[in-house]
UniProtKB/TrEMBL annotation:
Name the record gives this protein: 4-hydroxythreonine-4-phosphate dehydrogenase
Role description: Catalyzes the NAD(P)-dependent oxidation of 4-(phosphooxy)-L-threonine (HTP) into 2-amino-3-oxo-4-(phosphooxy)butyric acid which spontaneously decarboxylates to form 3-amino-2-oxopropyl phosphate (AHAP).
Catalytic activity, reaction form: 4-(phosphooxy)-L-threonine + NAD(+) = 3-amino-2-oxopropyl phosphate + CO2 + NADH
Entry binding sites for substrate: H130, T131, K268, N277, R286
Isomerase found in the keyword field: no
Keyword list, A-Z: Cobalt, Cytoplasm, Magnesium, Metal-binding, NAD, NADP, Oxidoreductase, Pyridoxine biosynthesis, Zinc
SUPFAM superfamilies in the record: Isocitrate/Isopropylmalate dehydrogenase-like
Protein's gene: pdxA
Subcellular location: Cytoplasm
Organism per entry: Pelagivirga sediminicola
Amino acid sequence: MQAPLPPIALSCGEPSGIGPELAQKAWQALGASLPFFWIGDPAHLPAGCPVTLIDQPEQAIGAAGLPVLAHAMPGPLTPGRPNPAHAQGVIDAIARGVALARSGAAGALCTAPIHKKALQDGAGFAHPGHTEYLAALTGTDRVVMMLASDQLRVVPTTIHLPLRDVPAALTAELLTDTIRITHAGLIRDFGLAAPRLAVAGLNPHAGEGGKMGREELDLIAPVLDTLRAERLNLIGPLSADTMFHPGARAGYDAAICMYHDQALIPIKTLDFDRGVNVTLGLPIVRTSPDHGTALDIAGRGMANPTSLIEALKMAARMGAARRA
C-alpha cells in the first residue's frame, strides 16, 4: 500500500497582502482533511488565529491550530503596505518550501501571491515572478504555466509580453516545448493516460487560410504535424473564438494558447474564483491561487479563500498522481 502524501507546504507570500488571512481561512475550511503547513512569521497571521508551531512537516498532521514552520522576518507589518525588510524572508520562505518538497518531506508546494516590486525593491529579486524563480531553484531549463479548474485547463505559450511582441517570440521551439511539457504534465500530474490537446491559432479565424496571417500555416501547423508523428493527440490550429463553449471543451483536456489573454480570459470568465496556477515541468508539484496580493483589502477580513483552497486541493491531487 502506498504511504500517504506528506503535508503540503504553503509559502507565506507577501505578508502585507491577503496571504496570511487566506492561510487561516484555508486551514479553517480544510482542517484535518488536507494537512498543510504555513512557512512564515507567526506574528504576521491575523489576531486570534490558532497556531501550532512545528519543527517538521509531518507534525502538521492532526495539529490543533494552523501548523506553522516559523520563518522570522524583521520589521513591522502594516496590511496593505509592503515592508522592504520582509523581502528576503519572503524569498527564503519559497526556497525553504522548494527544498522540503524536493526532499519528500512536503508532498507539494503551494505558494501564496508575492508582490514582485516589493521583492525587487527590498532584496534585488532578479526574476520576473514565482515561476522563473522556481525554475532557477530547481535547475529547470523550461517550465510551463497552466491555469486550471474543474471546467478548463489553459496554457499560454507566451506569457507576460506586450501583444506586439508575441509573433516574434512565438517560435517553433517554444511551441514544441510547451506542448510536450503540457502533455507530459497531464500524464504525470493529472493521471491522464492519453491527453487530448487543443491548439489555438494566433490570428483571428486561425489566419483564415493565410488571409489574416500566416503563422498558422508556416509555424503552428508544421509543429503540430511533427508532434502528431510522435503520437500526441492534437487538434488545431483552431480559431480561438470557437474553442471555449461547452461542446468544444468536452473534446480536449487542455487548451494551448498563443498569448496571455487568449488563455486567461476564458478561464477567468468561466471559473474566476476557482482557477489555480500550476507550474508544469518542475521536479516538484507547485500550485498557487490565481490572484494577486490584493493590498487594497489586506487586513480587512474580506479576502475570498476559494482559489487558495482549490490550489491546495489540486496540489494534493497532483502530488498523489505523481507518486502513483
